[in-house]
Write a structure and sequence with these properties.
9 helices, alpha+beta, disordered N terminus, Methane Monooxygenase Hydroxylase, Chain G, domain 1, Beta Polymerase, domain 2, nine-stranded mixed sheet
């Protein structure tokens, strides 16, 4: 996940759920290129290295090994997968880089998480960065996965909260599928397929929230409905910004001219490319739906306000003539010899007659309003 120096994290909250907007780890401006700066509190227990060697005939898996233990794999005629999970220390990262001949700038990008998805071709290896969306403990964010593809080896770095590659390791252990019989570029495809497909359950969850917000906006919009809509818009914008480059990464692998990817694996990578397009289409659809929900919410609020104002206007209109009558007969100008005195003031049944007249006036106005469909 993106993590920055000093834990400078900007979060959005909604219904107890947190979205990490910007938590990028970066070097101070002016730092020498290729510097590996990791948080000081990162120790050997903050990460684990799993070493896997396999062929069509055999499979060997060693957990919690050191960087030095990976040296023997280079001399074997096997496909090697070094899976580093957690926040790796600078010393271990440097040792792995020297052992496998990894470029220093690529190693710096492993440490400086929050990078845009990309593929870089070096003389003896490929370097890829992918973005993994995740929801863990009501926290939504993006995890950076860094990958190095070389001759006979694949190295992956990630600090995802869950072990997302366990299904792939299970297939390798049980020799299920093609992975054990193919070169390491097929393993790269399998890893990319897992990372890319993580977007589908994320978007499924967002789709359910969109349906709930749509019903709420139509039936009973509340003050926090607007906050949830804006939070969802920010999440989709974050996902779009981080997942859009993955299509370029897969496309670059398909157009690779250095023979890092075999023709057999390109066929499967085309399927990955289709998945990236589907995910982007779903994100754009969700963004349009959220924009539509916002319009529905504002229209519903405006309609409710207009309805309230209409009722208040009718009530005020009804009381206008009543107020006039009460004000007129409240003046109390009474003189027995004046021809301009108010004659109704001394009627014996004047008070009840005035009440009857006002009730009849209200009934007549209500009938007129209903006939004109103002009520």
């Amino acid at each position: 996940m993106w993590r920055g120096h000093g834990d400078d994290v900007n979060n959005c909250h909604y219904n107890g759920t947190v979205m990490r907007i910007f938590t990028k780890r970066y070097h101070p401006p002016g730092t020498s290129p290729g510097s590996l700066t990791v948080a000081e509190d990162v120790g050997e227990d903050a990460f684990t290295i799993r070493l896997i060697d396999y062929t069509a005939a055999g499979y060997v898996e060693n957990d919690d090994v050191s960087a030095t233990d990976c040296r023997e794999s280079l001399s074997r005629d096997t496909q090697t997968w070094v899976d580093v999970r957690g926040t790796v220390s600078a010393d271990t990262l440097t040792e792995l880089g020297e052992l496998f001949g990894l470029h220093s700038l690529a190693m710096e990008d492993v440490v400086s998480t929050g990078q845009r998805g990309k593929m870089e071709a070096h003389s003896d290896h490929l370097f890829l960065i992918m973005s993994l969306p995740d929801i863990t403990d009501d926290e939504i964010g993006i995890t950076q996965v860094s990958l190095f593809l070389g001759k006979g080896f694949l190295i992956t770095f990630n600090d995802a909260p869950s072990d997302l590659f366990e299904p792939l390791r299970h297939r390798l252990r049980q020799a299920i599928g093609r992975a054990r019989t193919r070169k390491v570029d097929y393993l790269l495809y399998a890893v990319l397929d897992i990372i890319i497909d993580q977007g589908f359950p994320m978007l499924e969850d967002i789709g359910e929230r969109i349906e709930g917000l749509e019903e709420e906006a139509l039936a009973r919009p509340r003050p926090d409905t607007l906050q949830q809509i804006h939070t969802l818009k920010r999440e989709l914008l974050l996902l779009r910004r981080m997942l859009w480059p993955q299509r370029e990464v897969v496309n670059a692998l398909l157009r690779d001219e250095d023979d890092w990817i075999t023709d057999e694996t390109r066929v499967f990578l085309r399927d990955c490319y289709d998945h990236t397009i589907q995910i982007m289409d779903l994100i754009e659809t969700c963004r349009e739906m959220v924009a539509g929900i916002l319009d529905v919410y504002l229209s519903n609020i405006s309609y409710r306000m207009n309805d309230i104002m209409r009722v208040l206007t009718i009530i005020a209109t009804i009381f206008i003539p009543l107020t006039f009558l009460v004000g007129l007969y409240g003046m109390n100008f009474s003189h027995p010899e004046s021809p301009w005195a108010m004659p109704e003031l001394h009627w014996y049944y004047g008070y009840p007659l005035l009440w009857l007249f006002m009730v009849a006036l209200v009934a007549a106005m209500l009938w007129i309003f209903r006939r004109r469909k103002w009520l």
